[in-house]
């Protein structure tokens, strides 16, 4: 259970439609309140929550509208998670996901070349080789933790390559990512302090890597790209750290939880798993479907910079809005009455909002799809199936939506 400094005075004070409560995700019972919100109040003002008052936006159309109007709904004014940055208690770490135009544009352009189709083609043989190695080391018919042995290992290796990070230290990336991505950890001053210390440790480590690349020929890794760019080469230490954390969390927790969702999700729907096993050509669509079904980041936040109308609701300047991708991806009017299920050949799986929409749409989406796709392909080549042998442990948070552990066993089909 997450700690909270502002626990409501009485149970009556809990709003059953406050979908920011961490236990909903820990216990996997977020579906029902979101179904109600979509049906009854797709733009709903939640007055009382641990994060203060906020608007819950839970259907597809208003989320797309908000993300198409970045001047009205700012990523910078209040950041991208429901938790507010407290100026006196926090050090502000600027990162371009939480910047508005024009600064956002320049910084995004700097890292975008790391994710072009030609870069993906260049990286794919390497990703395939590493995936194969990991799978070939797994026991068949014997229990292990899928999250640790497959999801974390694959995504951490990928990040180490993207940053040209010392191989033997790569689990530090996982550690920092876990601390950075868990917004429950900002709820007490002690945890805030501990988190900040880890973030600075991360910054110091990367500063060292940066210093070693200064004055050297450009190499195809993200640190070298930042050093040789106009938009990012003069970042101060906070901005440098902020953007590093963005890339570490962005690339780590999300793809990791898609890989875990593949194992857990297909185990829930054996008929769909059989369909996929019989027809590996469905893999690209199944990847989108798994990312839709899981929604590895449950929400992003926006803050209104002026008064606005949204589906008949009056939004005031300064209001915060949670864009619940996790709910929009279950929107019956877009994905039909079976939106809660995985359907590996769902015709419009690619319309999901797990990567967001508009100018901030995930810059690493292609890489995430490539990694998950290769995992599925290599599993299919070996005719390997994941059988889940117990309940997963889930992350108790309303931002990163995923799994801490997943007991599993492999069999051949
Ligand atoms: C932005 C999700 C993988 C790096 C985002 C956003 C979402 C998201 C929801 C914000 C969109 C918005 O505000 O409209 C995901 C999911 C992933 C994934 C679900 C995996 C399945 C990755 C990877 C990387 C990455 C592999 C890099 C290694 C970023 C960055 C941004 C971003 C840098 C900021 C883009 C901007 O502000 O312009 N991602 N992401 N993500 N993601 Fe991802």
TrEMBL record:
Keywords: Heme, Iron, Metal-binding, Monooxygenase, Oxidoreductase. One of its GO terms (molecular function) is oxidoreductase activity, acting on paired donors, with incorporation or reduction of molecular oxygen. It holds the Pfam family p450. It comes from the Bacteria. PROSITE patterns: CYTOCHROME_P450 (PS00086). Transmembrane segments: none annotated. InterPro entries: Cyt_P450 (IPR001128), Cyt_P450_B (IPR002397), Cyt_P450_CS (IPR017972), Cyt_P450_sf (IPR036396). Gene3D superfamilies: Cytochrome P450. Belongs to the cytochrome P450 family. This is Cytochrome P450. The lineage of its organism: Bacteria, Pseudomonadati, Pseudomonadota, Alphaproteobacteria, Sphingomonadales.
